[in-house]
Design brief:
- By secondary structure, the protein is mainly α.
- The longest helix is centred in the C-terminal third of the chain and has 49 residues.
- The chain has a single domain, classed as Histone Acetyltransferase, Chain A, CATH 1.20.920.
- The chain is about 65% helix and about 5% strand.
- The chain has a two-stranded antiparallel sheet with strand order 1-2.
- It contains six helices and two strands, in the order αββααααα.
- This is Dynein heavy chain coiled coil stalk domain-containing protein.
- InterPro entries: DHC, Dynein_HC_stalk.
- One of its GO terms (molecular function) is dynein light intermediate chain binding.
- Pfam families: MT (PF12777).
């Protein structure tokens, strides 16, 4: 169980970090003595998320059509190209995180396709509206 891990494997942290970013969870700011500055730590927020009774509902009901561009950019820049962000690799550390990794990858793919399909849907709606006007005009001519 992921939330019972005191010091989780790096791939578990990586996946949970991506999930936190996707769900809009803010990281904790912690001092890093080796770097001498503050770092973003997502493990605390990850544990809170995993302990939330509505976590699965949040995943199921996630609005996939309104993911902010900056969130997708971060996911695509940091997580998707990371060789460790692979369900097969993640599975070795946690089967639960494997599913979450697949979820993030699926959202990335969906978002890419949706950006291609959206303009086509708009053109279809305009064409259907124009057709409806033409058809209704022709019906009036038939009965006039």
């Amino acid at each position: 169980m992921v939330k019972s891990m005191k010091n989780p494997p790096s791939v578990v942290k990586l996946v949970m970090e991506a999930v936190c970013i996707m769900l809009g969870e803010k990281p904790d700011r912690k001092p890093d003595s080796s770097l001498g500055r503050m770092i973003e730590d997502f493990w605390g927020p990850s544990l809170k998320l995993l302990g939330d009774l509505k976590f699965l509902d949040r995943l199921r009901n996630f609005n996939i059509d309104s993911i902010p561009a900056n969130v997708m950019r971060k996911i695509r820049d940091i997580y998707i190209p990371n060789t460790d962000f692979d369900p097969k690799i993640v599975r070795n550390a946690s089967t639960a995180c494997e599913g979450l990794c697949k979820w993030i990858i699926a959202l990335d793919k969906y978002d890419r396709v949706a950006k291609i399909v959206a303009p086509k849907k708009e053109k279809l709606a305009v064409a259907e509206a124009e057709l409806s006007v033409q058809v209704s005009g022709n019906i009036f001519k038939l009965f006039a």
